[in-house]
């Protein structure tokens, strides 16, 4: 009968232990219990002087129970040690998901993934060897074929960026590596309209995609900085409130938000400006930053007056006419001006027209021959001037036109020279004439415009030899300039879950994970507790 019961019990034990026979070690509990039960109890004697305290102590059932427990504490420890020893011999195990040999971990570190529990997802999907790829506005391979613990450390060190996502670049990089592709992303491709799901569905690798959920009630999706005011585009999603308390710089503002797109206009203030909405599920899109430069008014001095140019300059806030040459930052030269090269060498700027006679002072070869051809100015926007006569110069430098030699910028010492080598008669009546001169003069004097200083995250800015990619919203000091950066991406801000649109192809294999080491650790811990207890009661010295 007993043998039949044991045989019936074995299939159950084999689901828990690799070697159920090891549980026979539990028989060691029999002599242990016999020893403790047969051990004579010590004779208790009570001194008369202690009877008073003994009487009150006896009244406490809690203390009595505690004393009984402490008398049997060593027995309890010995029972636990024998049980843990038997478990160790029986080799307990647990069914756990099998780690693939290779895993390619693709982490989307863009704005929309902030607040998602990426570490738990990655921890559940590590392989024996792991390649870690971080993707956002750019893609980087952070580690190749590293063990699970090292891969997890790399993942924990990856910083999120307040940028849009080029997820497809990360997925295409992942397909170059063997193993299961593990994608910690909400599958938003926001830098263009390509579809990441098509990449995943076409791959032969097993795929595991993270489940994500985003609650976002409102978002700043565009910051349009004008000359006098700034328009802030705010999208309110369905669950948002009709009225919210916002803040412009340090002033509280109550604004109405209808569902969908709202435009809020703010008067510009020189310097740094912020506009803040209340916190919600994604805070990176709740604040608008914009910077209004404080131009002191750069002086322009003209040699041989040009009334059309003067009228254009009158429309440009950053520049003003000066009557004295020594007060000038820019020299507009139609004729001759001795020693102008020295002024530019010291840091000023010069505009040389087709009629100028000072090219040779800068060492520039300017022919007196002219040709007539179709001329287009490329910067700041394309302006067709039609058939225009221009000077054949053979000059070198950055061109703003087509043909190149019509409008060119040259560095000279600490300053710059802009050579406008064409006839401007037809151009002067163009509505874009003052627009061209504003941007050209800002460029030649290295003066940033308001547009230059207000950018989107993910863009790079260059100051001198320093090029910096701006990946965080807010204000950034690069060189001697201040830049304001915003996310400005409705695709990143929009509410979306991944499981509804893509489930992925997962690996369901499991493996038996031996837990014998845990039993051994428990034995060592129980022995340590017993030694400490014996030392505490004075049995060990």
Described by the principal axes of the CA atoms, the overall outline is elongated
The domain count comes to 4
Average pLDDT, rounded to a whole number, is 85
Instruction: Count every beta strand, where a strand is a DSSP E run of 2 or more residues.
Output: 29
- Kindly provide the radius of gyration, computed on alpha-carbon positions and rounded to a whole number of angstroms: 39 Å
What is the third-level CATH name, the topology of the largest domain? Answer: Rossmann fold
Structural class: alpha/beta
Number of helices: 15
First-last Cα distance: 51 Å
In the predicted model, the low-confidence regions spanning at least 5 consecutive residues are 500-507
With strands numbered from the N-terminus, the spatial order across the biggest sheet is 15-14-16-17-23-22-20
CATH architecture of the largest domain: 3-Layer(aba) Sandwich
Largest sheet geometry? 7 strands, mixed
Can you say what the CATH homologous superfamily of the largest domain is? Class I glutamine amidotransferase (GATase) domain
CATH class identity of the largest domain: Alpha Beta
Tell me what portion of residues adopts beta-strand conformation: 25-35%
Helical percentage: 25-40%
